[in-house]
Amino acid sequence: MPPRSLTIDQSLLRRMARDAAVYSLTRPVAIVMWVALAAALGISILNLSGRVAAGQDNDGLAAWMPPLVIALAVVAIIMSISSARHAVRAAMPPATVVWVSLEEEELQVGSGDRRSTIAYSTFQSIRVGTDAVLLKVRDASVATAIPRALLSDDDLAALRAKIA
After folding, report:
1. Number of folded domains in the chain?
2. Is the same domain home to 66 and 123?
3. Using 50, 70 and 90 to split pLDDT, how confident is the model at 123?
4. Is the distance from CB of 52 to CB of 59 less than 8 angstroms?
5. Which residue among 3, 8, 113, 162 is buried most deeply as judged by most CB within 10 Å?
6. Least confident stretch, 7-11, 24-28, 78-82, 111-115
7. Where are the beta strands (DSSP E) in 8-122?
8. pLDDT for 7-18, tens place per residue?
9. How is residue 140 annotated by DSSP?
10. What is the Cα–Cα distance from 9 to 161, expressed in whole angstroms?
């Protein structure tokens, strides 16, 4: 496929970062974290309710547990969004021309003066968001983001076939 290119703007960066944050917050490890936080919240509420029902006025730490668990969840969301924004902005600063080319054995991606040639076997999976295509790197917790507008549906099908 001949390279397709586009110029990154602030709006596209925000939308791609949103897709990357959603990806980050819905990965299996993150799901385990959400389940653990939900369980901690439920247990802390039950514990607090039991203490109140028993007439114990000195709730101490038990009273602080539900807000603390909720605060941890909010911090996790904020950090994921911030990390996604930083990563996307570092890879593709505003006003940078980004291009992609699907070759027979590798993916070629360019951003400004940088150019990467990555074998398809480097990637473990693909996730297509509204504005970003996220390619999870095998044996790592990182993903490569590519603007969705650079890849047609046929390109995505070919990419899926090469990564699977």
Report:
1. 2
2. no
3. very high
4. yes
5. 8
6. 111-115
7. 97-102, 106-111, 114-119
8. 999 999 999 999
9. S
10. 30
Q: Are residues 85 and 107 in the same domain?
A: no
Using CA atoms, how far residue 141 sits from 12, 48, 55, 76, 125, in Å, is 23, 37, 48, 16, 12
Give the whole-angstrom CA distance, residue 131 versus residue 93: 16
Place of tokens 């109140």: 52
Residues 109 and 151 occupy one common structural domain: yes
Range of the domain at 54: 12-91
In this structure, the number of other CB atoms found within 10 A of the CB of residue 66 comes to: 17
Buried b (16+ CB within 10 A) or exposed e, 130-148: ebbbbbbeeeeeebbbbbb
Per DSSP, the three-state class of 89 is helix
Do 147 and 133 share a structural domain?
Answer: yes
Asked if residue 164 has pLDDT above 80, the reply is no
* C-alpha–C-alpha distance, residues 123 and 126, integer Å: 8
Same domain, 86 and 104: no
Strand order in the sheet with 4-7: 4-7, 97-102, 106-111, 114-119
